[in-house]
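Side project, low priority. Logging it here so it doesn't get lost.
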Amino acid sequence: MPAGADIDWAEFFALYRALAVRLALGITAHPALAEDLAQEAARSTFERARAGELAVESREHARNYFLRAVRNLAASALRGRRGAGGTEIARAAPSPEPGPLDLAAARERDAGERLRALLGGLPAAEREALALRYLEGLSYREMSARCAAPISTLQARVEAGLRKIRGRIGNEDPDA
């Protein structure tokens, strides 16, 4: 029996469609594109599960895979500034008065800049291990195959990188 055969995919996608659209919308800020990206991620997830390429251990695992696919497609569309079918993505015009979403986006941007600076101070091997683990969402087995390094080495790199980042965050002035 192929992986994920016990999941009713129609019910699964009906249950998580709205969440997927909100996730894509939060990244792209384009409602039609968000719908397209959620649909594309659903198609891809279903096809991979049907072909036996997606080892689904549980419904939660399938949900996480599906939402990660949505996130990756949305980020990719935004980076390329192109949507489904090659449609140009226009940036929304800034609002004259910042609202709560604008302030949240500014805080997220500041946090992203701080994180980039913290990551930039790490050795390349630790930075790469953290990126593969947390940005690309790879398992240690997948990381090992890509990097041709033992799993234990990659785990040590991730742990060392996290320890250094946590130490640097703890040493920052909270009022700065």
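Brief comment: The chain has seven helices and no strands.
Revisit when time allows.
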